[in-house]
Please model this.
Amino acid sequence: MKMTGSGVNGMIGMEGGRVEESIGELRRTFRSGKTRSAAWRKAQLKALLQLLRDNENKIFEALKQDLGKHPVESYRDELGVVEKSVKYSLSHVDEWMAPKKSSLPLIFFPAKGQVLPEPLGLVLIFSSWNFPISMSLDPVIGAISAGNSVVLKPSEQAPACSSFLANTIPLYLDSKAFKVIEGGAEISQQLLQQKWDKIFFTGSPSVARIVMSAAVKHLTPVTIELGGKCPTIFDYLSSPSDTEVAVKRVVGGKWGPCNGQACIGVDYVLVEEKFASHLIEMLKKTIKKFYGENPKQLKDISRIVNKHHFQRLRNLLKDPLVAASIVHGGLIDEEKLFIEPTILLDPPLDAEIMTEEIFGPLLPIITLKNIEESIEFINSRPKPLALYAFTNDEAFKRRILSETSSGSVTFNDIMIQFICDTLPFGGVGQSGFGRYHGKYSFDTFSHEKAVLRRSFFLELEPRFPPWNDFKLKFIRLAYSFDYLGLILLLLGLKR
Model:
C-alpha cells in the first residue's frame, strides 16, 4: 500500500511499515525536550510565516486546481487567516507558556500554587478538503505554540493542496518534529492504529465516529470539529439600509466561502411569511450583483470539489417536492462540477435537504408565522456549529442566547466569528466538541499541570491518625475554611 508524494524529509510517501518508524522519530524528538523551549516554538512559527509569504502564488494555484477558488477568496479564507493566526500566536506565546500563579486557601500556609502549561506530546491532525490550507495549518499553529510534535494528514480530496503541504512544509519546519502524511482511507486507518497524545479532526460525522472509536483504544483525547445545519434567523429590519446590508451578508456567507461548502456557512434561513418574497427578491438581486447575470458563466465563485459531492448535491434536488420549491437557480453543469446558487422556498421539512447538512450552494428559505417560532424550530434539531440572527430586537437576542444551544452565536453578520482569535471556535453536541483559535488552540494542545509547593514548617497533626473527636472537628472546620472556629478549637474554647 503506497501513498502519494515524493518522500522529501518530513513528507512521507511510503510503505505503511515506515509510518511507525517516522512516528517513533517524532516521539523521540518530543522526549528530547527540543520542542519545549520558547525559542524553538517561535522559530517554527516564523518559519511557517515565511512559508506562506514565499509560496503565496503556489497556494493560490493549488486552491484553484482543487476548488476553483479566486485568489481574493483564497487569501481571505485561507492564506490570510493563517498569517493572522501565526502573528497572533507569535506575539503571545511567551505569555501563554508562563506559569500562572494560583491562590491557595490559608489552611495550606505556607505554600505556593501555580498552573504550568505543558505540551501533550505527539499529536495527529486530520484536515478537511473545503479549506485545505487554513484547516491544516491553523491547528498546526496551536500545536507548535504548545510545544508538540505533529503529524498532519491533509485531505486526499484536495490533492493539489495536499501535495503542496507535503512537499513544502519539510523545507521550512523541523522535519524531525513535523511530518505530513498523504493518502486515503487506508493510510488514515493505519495512523489511527498508532498511539497518540492528541487527535484533532475536522470533517464529517461518519468519519469522526471512526476516529473516536480508534482513540478510545488508547484513551486518546480528541477534538472533533464537525458542522451541522447552521440556521440564519432573519427578523424584520425597519431600516431599508440595514436590510440591504443583512442580505449582502447572507449571500456572502452562503455562496462566498467555497460556494456553500463550509461548515459554518448558512444552511437555511428562517423568516416570517410576510417578508419572504421581499427577502428572496433581494437575495436574487445581490447574487447577480456579486457573481454576474449569466448563470452559465458566473465568476468569483468556487466549484464543487468532486463528482461524489456533486452527485450528492444533485440528489438533494431529485425529490419532486424539493425541485418544485426552487424559486431561483437550479442550473447544473456536471462537466464543470458547478451548481448555480439556488434558492428554495419551503421545501418539505422531512426531505433530506432539511435533515442533512447541505454543504453546497442550495439555500432553503423556511417561513414562519412569527419569527420567535424560530427558537422552537432550531431546538427541534441537532445543535448547530453556528447560529446567525439578523435582528435589532434586544429582547429577542436575549431569548436566542438563553433558549438555544450552538457552537457560536453571531448577531447581524455571518462567519466573522471564525476569524476572531480572541473567541473560541468549536461545536457542541453533534456539531463537535473541543475548541481552538488563538489562546484556545494553545490550550487544546496543552495540559495544565497543577504545581503546589510546601515547606516542612508548620505541620497540621489532626490530618494524621490515630483518630479522635478533636481531629474530626478540626477537619470539619478546615474544610469549611472556618479559621476563627479553628483558633477557638485549638484554644479549647470551642466544642
Q: What stands out?
A: DSSP finds 18 helices and 19 strands in the chain. Confidence is low (pLDDT under 50) at residues 1-14. The longest strand covers residues 111-119. The CA atoms of residues 50 and 321 lie 52 Å apart.
